[in-house]
Amino acid sequence: MKAILFASFLITSLFAKTFPVNIREGKKIITKQLELENLESEKVFEGKYFKIVKALETDAVSFSDNQETIKRAATVYYHLNIARDYFKAIMPQNQELDKQMIIRIEKVRKWDSSIHSVKGEYQYNGSLSVPASSTLANIGEEICYGENNSDCKIVEPWENEIWFFAPKLIKESSTVEMATNYIDSPGYKKMLLGNLLYADFTQFMFSAFQKEMVDDLLIEQHLYSMAMSIGLTAVLPKVLKYSAKLFKTKRFLDSAMIPEIIYHEYSHIALSTFLSLGNSTAIGEGFSNYFAYKMSKVKKLGANSKKYYKGELPKKINSKVLYSIEQDAVQSLAWGSFTFSLLGKLDVALGEESEVILLKSLEYLNGHSNLRFDFTKAVLSAIDEVGKNKLALKIAALNVFQEKGL
Ligand SMILES: [Zn+2]
What CATH number does the domain located at 252-403 have? Predict the structure, then answer.
């Protein structure tokens, strides 16, 4: 008996330490005990490429922290290494990927490009890729906060970081009451419409159907274009009626627990040489979703993660949304599914060359590029540069652009 106990002790101590990591198994998120690659510490989540810290702490998360924090740190660490391996294979020249990055979990302070984190201003439920401090940042300056500006700190320079905000269940206050108070404010009207757009129209229609909320107006395919052409005020009462229900949805997102969100954020970092961080665009968000899909094979990003993701709509590679000028003009649409579904269709149409071509197209794009002209041109230029059967590939790409209304 003693010998067996001793032997089993030897075996477990020979094997590397394992941690609880959230992974996708089929469509579900499950937790598995897994080893972590490139760890350089036996006590904290600090490795060759990633150092996981809590909020604004400077030391890495300890292996003896609470269970939830350990699971977040381990999940983020595990998937970031997978994402790094993926990008290192397709972008071997990208030296950004070889540096050690600071990853913040359970972050609650808002981002500010001049001072990094804002004290007293909070953000929950989401993730953000933060660009390194630029010449615009107030490095070395003393910034003071609080009512009497009594709380001061010197702003230190920082490198690219990824933040995973602390999850928090947020219930919207009664929208109907809110609406009656604010219905005439232009900001509120814009927000209502933005919410509809953000929700991705087909998804909205579907949920409206399920809730038996459909009426004649909503059956119209393009509520937004209608609003634009006949005037917002004309459709607002209807929009209000339905979006009130949407608004009541509780919001909760534990982004550090969902593999494809981690891939999405790392994609922003890997692609930041082309598409600058700190400014969300349709192309930037679309490409990050596309690569999150390539790494995870998840076609509805964020779906089937009930425990960690409430009240938001998944990003769908099979979204039927067609191009309209708003996709380029309205920033909230960058977080919809259009560009993701466009890249998804190109991925299929361009076959085994898709990844190489789409990656090459980024060399023709920047943080100000639009979909209609810049992206379509970039794909065709990329085919010219690296495609094998150029004519067939161009026809395939043009077909996709046409199918998606571009
Ligand atoms: Zn993003």
Answer: 1.10.390
Going by the DSSP 8-state scheme, the letter that residue 98 receives in this structure is: G
Position 281, amino acid: T
Model pTM score? 0.81
The tokens for 226 are 């209608």
282 Cα: distance to centroid of ligand 1 (angstroms): 10
The rounded Å distance from CA 269 to ligand 1 centre is: 10
Q: Please check whether residue 259 is in contact with residue 24, taking contact to mean a CB–CB distance below 8 angstroms.
A: yes
Burial class (CB in 10 A: 0-12, 13-18, 19+), 234: exposed
The residues facing 148 across adjacent strands are: none
Show the tokens assigned to 89.
Answer: 């294979």
Once rounded to an integer, what is the mean pLDDT over residues 213-220? 36
Domain ranges in the chain with CATH number 1.10.390: 252-403
Inter-residue contact 243 to 201 (CB < 8 Å): no
What is the CA(258)–ligand 1 centre distance, in A? 14
Residue 115 in this model has a pLDDT that exceeds 90: no
Interacting residues of 325 by C-beta distance below 8 A, sequence separation 6+:
372
